Queue: 2 jobs
Job 1
Amino acid sequence: MTLQLRSLLKSTGDLEISLVDAPAAEPQADEVVVRVDATPINPSDLGLLLALADPTSFQAAGTPERPVALARVPEKVVPGLKARWDQSLPVGNEGAGTVVRAGSSPQAQALLGKAVAMAGGSMYAQERLIRADQCMVIPAGCMARDAASWYVNPMTALSMTETMRREGHTALVHTAAASNLGQMLNRICLKDGIGLVNIVRRAEQAELLKSQGAQHVINTSDADFMAQLTDALAETGATIAFDAIGGGKLPGQILTCMEAAINRKAQGYSRYGSEVHKQVYLYGNLDRMPTEIARNVGMAWGVAGWLLTPFLQRIGREDTQRLKQRVMDELTTTFKSGYTQEVTLAGALDPKAIATYGKAATGEKYLIRPNGV
Amino acid sequence: MTLQLRSLLKSTGDLEISLVDAPAAEPQADEVVVRVDATPINPSDLGLLLALADPTSFQAAGTPERPVALARVPEKVVPGLKARWDQSLPVGNEGAGTVVRAGSSPQAQALLGKAVAMAGGSMYAQERLIRADQCMVIPAGCMARDAASWYVNPMTALSMTETMRREGHTALVHTAAASNLGQMLNRICLKDGIGLVNIVRRAEQAELLKSQGAQHVINTSDADFMAQLTDALAETGATIAFDAIGGGKLPGQILTCMEAAINRKAQGYSRYGSEVHKQVYLYGNLDRMPTEIARNVGMAWGVAGWLLTPFLQRIGREDTQRLKQRVMDELTTTFKSGYTQEVTLAGALDPKAIATYGKAATGEKYLIRPNGV
């Protein structure tokens, strides 16, 4: 038997996070079983884990070995989560570990005893059954800890520059740019010589990014931030942006400043605005207010939702594999992640831990060690 | 010498619409000169013609043969029009006429004496020099009057269904659907068997479209219009919309209802919303307020500006020609246009006429006859 973390939302609005005993899986020919050594708690795990419950509202129940964390989900959001009512759902987007059992295929057998990185859900568990061809072998010299966060942030950041190139842009804008993801994107752009305009909300975030070599950092708290942003856009030529915030005026302001930057070089009159396509992708939902686009952006613009998984499906298996391999090759440099706490599966259910990692604050990141710290 | 209509905005904010004498053009080998017999005043001509001046504020000047129309452009919009200051600009997006002189190439000579349709600006004139391969020969039995509005509305409406197919959708939504363009789109969709959800603002507009065979007409003035819209979207499966209004909440409301219609059939829980891509294209600017997108639309969505010319450039010459030929083939049926007034070039400068056509009201359309009515 192996332990799995589960999140269960009842139709009554009661949320129960618990550990269940699952039978040890036997791999099919092309499958392996991985002992999960390290798996992070990302902001993108919190929706499934906490079901929009207030992270500070959890109560402990159960026993020390089989703890349970209980909370009430706000009544107004319970109906919107109907599709998950009364289902005990596994959690955890990514992780790394050691292959302990392997199916009969040569590809599966070749992985036996190897350290591998994985993605695809159900990682908050002592063991994860997975197809052999979905495992990435961790380079010699790297620990499971180094590879645990190999997918969500690294592949998202790398896919942003990949999207930029595929859609014909040469530089990009990123908001909430001091996040772990933002710092990683800054390292990619510095390494690859890509112009990056970092947008942050506070002076200390700007300092952090500048200390890491960022050339263009705009603070939305500055009174003249629109003018600063337009200057940075004119200097870099950035015409695509990735926005983590989603709601409010910022996506529209970025388009407005892009159009103004382009029109500085415009020749002649065009009643439809510039012909250069300007694109903002919203990949996060930090602000749930409506997104507002002012109408001074011309006609050549787009705003759209953006998610990693559909993007990788569009570019196909071969290009996806190329991006994954680059992450493996630069695990401890470009794609390095840091953690503030390491906990067991039981430790992840401690109400005090939930209150801390549930804030999804930059610089505060938990790593689960399902088989002991 | 031939007469041309010109619009001149001075840096002082003074706008002068006048008629100028231009020397008769001599065609190069691959060019022809067309006597313009009929050219419409479209809403899309008004920006260039009136430079955002109040249509009811024009004063007559000049002589009866060379009239001038004068107005003041509002001070706050003059700086935004700097790129056109002090330039005497020709006007008129589309028209039809007779080839009166032709260059030496066989293609140009073959057009001599033929009735042709044209697009590309500078149509408010007695003669238009144009490349022979840009002329569409008008079918026998059609008048210049039938072909004058062959491009802007017909090609836009046809390009909407073409965009729908190319981007993988099977039905579409149109707002301001009782417009001349909207009625034309309704005829295309009825003929081609395409599901169309028409959105209007008033009951009489709904009646007009229903009298023309429209099956789905939603009135935004109805209290339950979101519920009605969701039903119509579920019935038609429409996941793309073309919106003429641009600003305000309607583009976002369409996305919200599309997501709700899709989720009626959803199986299982997805924290990112449906995987079906929902798209709204804004092709007009009837409302200059910011566009607002609520955040209950999942992640698979996009909003973007849309213009006919860049679309035709993207699809290329051959497909563009196919669309143009379909318009020619159905000039007096699917793509029929009506006019409420016919005027000379001088008549188009009459302040009373400007006050009428300047409103761009549905059902009120002027046709210019540059060589006499």
Note: The first strand of chain A starts at residue 2 and ends at 9.
Job 2
Amino acid sequence: MVQYQPALDRTFGALADPTRRGILEQLGHGTATITELAEPFQMSLTGLKKHVRILEDVELVTTEKVGRARRCNLGPRRLEDAQQWIETYRQMLEARLDRFGELLERTKGEQR
Amino acid sequence: MVQYQPALDRTFGALADPTRRGILEQLGHGTATITELAEPFQMSLTGLKKHVRILEDVELVTTEKVGRARRCNLGPRRLEDAQQWIETYRQMLEARLDRFGELLERTKGEQR
């Protein structure tokens, strides 16, 4: 159905953590430094940096050094691939359920 | 923006593996036993069972014992939550890009 997309492993992996989803949601309101991002999570800067690096690797976040701080922003990835995979899956599931429904109807018909 | 949804950690985690996405795609064509599922992946039954269990935990797959085999099928989860999260994220990203575009236009206007 869908060919193997290695990028999807890393994308879904990046989204599988509440801190990382939280970082993306926070950056949706505007750029923020690592220190600002760490605050609501009550997390060490080192811990938060690791999460930011994972998001940088999949281009969901970009960072730049501004003086002594590192400023983070949303990256260029728009998650089309992840969205497309889920959409295709849902269509496939619907088709399965439809076929199953038809089968049930036919079985009922035969029993009459 | 979005409240913390623990189920999303496990859902995205389950989708972050090519074998598990492959299993779902294969089950989209119809039910299959563990042995049938293992074939295209050239994987041990033990290895494949672990993946199936992870998919069962998030209700993407159901299994039932039929004689000596275990028959797998697509589960009741329709991935609405994952799809919704990604959709909300994309809308937020678009809004950010729009605001950035407006800012650029305004800056240009001021420079004229």
Note: Strands of chain B lie at 32-33, 61-66, 69-74.
